Amino acid sequence: MSTLQDQIKQVIETEPVTVFIKGTPEAPACGNSMRAMQALWQAGAPIVAVDVLPDPRIRQELTSLSEWPTIPQVFVKGELIGGADITEEMHASGALKEKIDEALGEHTQFVRTVELALD
Question: Hey, which of 1, 32, 104, 108 has its CA 20 to 30 A from 48?
Fold first, then answer.
């Protein structure tokens, strides 16, 4: 079975847009997670969300991989964009939609949640 860090890497590397949030897209557990989700949705992103709350190890492994201390963390095609403030600023300037369109080409918008296998 793959390690938690392997699973996190795989989601980041294989999904077009990944956001690690507190809670779920339907029920964000913090304002910053909700703000990042809204900016991504408004920019037309296909969003794959991972809830960091079920196990503190998810956040620890993610932070050691990304070297970004806070949640949410937004990745486009494997590249860390940043947290809620940066994602919102990029959306406001049009840079987020541009980045998504450039990275993904033609794409369909969706939101889904991926659960990591915790041992």
Answer: 1
Please give the Cα distance from 65 to 79 (Å, whole number): 12
Q: Does an H or E element contain 73, and which?
A: strand 73-76
Structure tokens at 118: 């915790």
Q: Is 62 left (phi over 0), alpha (psi -120 to 50) or beta?
A: alpha
User: Would you say 36 and 21 are in contact if contact means Cβ atoms under 8 Å apart?
Assistant: yes
Q: What is the pLDDT of residues 49-65, one digit of tens each?
A: 999 999 999 999 999 99
Give domain limits for the chain: 4-113
What Cα–Cα distance (Å) separates residue 68 from each residue in 14, 45, 47, 62? 20, 22, 20, 8
CA dihedral 48→53→55→60, nearest 10 degrees, is: 80
- The confidence score (pLDDT) of residue 1 equals 62
User: What's the burial of 12, exposed, middle or buried (CB within 10 Å: 0-12/13-18/19+)?
Assistant: buried
